[in-house]
Amino acid sequence: MVKSGGNIPAPAEIPIVLPLPNMDEDEKEMEDVIVPNEDVNTMMMLGKHYILNYIMKQAAKPLKGILYHYKDVKNYPMEEQKKWEQACKEEIKSIEDRNVWTLVDCPPDRKPVKCRWVFAKKSDGRFKARLVVKGFSQIYGEDYDETFSPVTHFETVRLLLAYTCQNDWEIESLDVKTAFLYG
Amino acid sequence: MEQPKGFKVPGSSNKVYCLLRALYGLKQAALAWNKELHKSLLKLNFKHSKSDPGVYIFQDKSGIMLFIVYVDDGLLMSNSTKLLKKKKTAFLNVWEARDMGPVKEYLGFQITHNRVKRSMVLHQHPYVLKVLKRFQMENVKHVRTPLPAGYQPSTAPKDYNASPTIRQWYQSIIGSLLFVMLGTCLDIAFAIIKMSQFMANPTKEHLQKALHIVKYLGSTPNLTLHFSGGASSLDCYSDSDWAGDSETRRSTSSYAIFLGNDLVSW
């Protein structure tokens, strides 16, 4: 089982030409491997697999400068630590404002669903934290039954955009904050 | 639910939270939200479209208004400014939402609406850039075609079984490209459909060709989808390549539907 968004071990059957740092080793070592983009020729000499491996490893890594595990917050500068924690507090507050949960004793025969923090830096510089439930551990029939939720077809969106644009309609957009907390 | 890390309630760390409402990540979260939204829109006298579950329509003497819902993103369209303002205010009273004014972005589409010329430009470049960055393809050599000319993908050998890792990589590439293709980039539609046939058992060659499509997207940052109006007739063009697959002799067919001059479906 691969951890969600986490490291993906190198595939066994791709022959690795150079001794690449193993994904299981310290992550810091991974970051030290710099293959300059302009030096494609060297990479070509090393073989296409080398490039392919490199590309895919980079793609599987969490983003730099963005908190990935809550426990790693200590490694960040004080200023950023505060911002991340502030973001968490805001999220907790918005959850509690909506009476999403109450504190109870766990029934002896049940296991609580786990949760984790997801962090992001928004394009306008805001620090954002969101608490998500690890829904994959829920059991069908026991914890949930129906989950299908309809969405709009892209065709419909384009068709209506084209139509309304031709006829000079007013078009505006909005997005609902913390939508899923309402349900 | 267990208590979140870093925010355990002091003195009762053995207790758990009982969820009264849905949270992100919960399996039933999307459905629960959709039901609530549906109810509230009906209360605002919108009618639910029968052909598309995400479209709500309101009509009275002052005009027509359309409300497109995509999970938590809403798009409001109306031929009457007053009606739009009125309904938007009513909606904002019910839900805490960010009013983003005249449309600039929707579902990751960047939208430039020119009301004087009655034209519109759609593209997904920010998303494409993200994909390029994710696969380290920002500075690669440009290519002119989505796939090499005349490329015929070969199926994997019979005893070949893709490792779960390759499969996951391949599917994540095709998945990100599929979103762009369905959104605004019909030029990669054929290549994507072709390559997605190998989703279940991709070889290294397929993986490289999928990255070729990513390269192509990076090479064409100026391509956008243009809506420029014209007569509002609905035209459909279709074609087939008559047994284009040299291995199975199967045909690939495709279509493009235009509303006036605007390509809306492919």
> How big a fraction of the residues of chain B is strand?
15-25%
Question: Which CATH architecture of the domain at 33-101 in chain B is right?
Answer: 2-Layer Sandwich
Q: Main sheet of chain B?
A: 4 strands, antiparallel
Mean pLDDT over the residues of chain B: 85
Most extensive contact: A-B, 89 and 107 residues
**Tally the helices of chain B: what do you get?**
6
The string of secondary-structure elements of chain B, in order, is EHEEEEHEEEEHHHHEEEE
Shape of chain A: extended
**Domain count of chain A:** 2
- Low-pLDDT regions of chain A: 1-36
Q: What is the CATH level 1 assignment of the domain at 33-101 in chain B?
A: Alpha Beta
Q: In angstroms, what is the radius of gyration of chain A?
A: 23 Å
Helix content of chain B: 25-40%
Residue share in β-strands of chain A: 5-15%
Span between N and C termini of chain B? 44 Å
Number of strands of chain B: 13
Comma- or semicolon-separated keywords:
heterodimer, A: 183 residues, alpha+beta, 5 helices, disordered N terminus, B: 266 residues, TATA-Binding Protein, 4-stranded antiparallel β-sheet, 6 helices, 31% helix
Describe it:
The complex is a heterodimer of chains A (183) and B (266). Chain A is of the alpha+beta class. Chain A has two domains: 1-61, no CATH class; 64-101 and 109-183, no CATH class. Chain A contains five helices and four strands. Chain A has helices at residues 27-32, 40-46, 48-60, 78-97, 154-166, and strands spanning 101-104, 115-121, 127-133, 170-176. In chain A, helix 2 (40-46) crosses helix 3 (48-60). Chain B has a domain at 33-101: 2-Layer Sandwich (TATA-Binding Protein), CATH 3.30.310. Chain B has helices at residues 29-43, 81-94, 125-134, 164-183, 189-195, 204-219; strands at residues 16-19, 47-48, 55-60, 63-70, 73-78, 97-102, 105-106, 109-114, 119-123, 225-227, 234-240, 253-259, 262-265. In chain B, the strands form three sheets. In chain B, strands 2-3-4-5 form a four-stranded antiparallel beta sheet, covered by helices on one side. A four-stranded antiparallel beta sheet of chain B has the order 7-8-9-10, with no helix packed on it. Chain B has a three-stranded antiparallel beta sheet with strand order 11-12-13, with no helix packed on it. In chain B, strand 7 (105-106) and strand 8 (109-114) form a beta hairpin. The longest helix of chain B is centred in the middle third of the chain and has 20 residues, at 164-183. The radius of gyration of chain B is 23 Å and the shape is globular. The interface between A and B is large, with 89 and 107 residues.
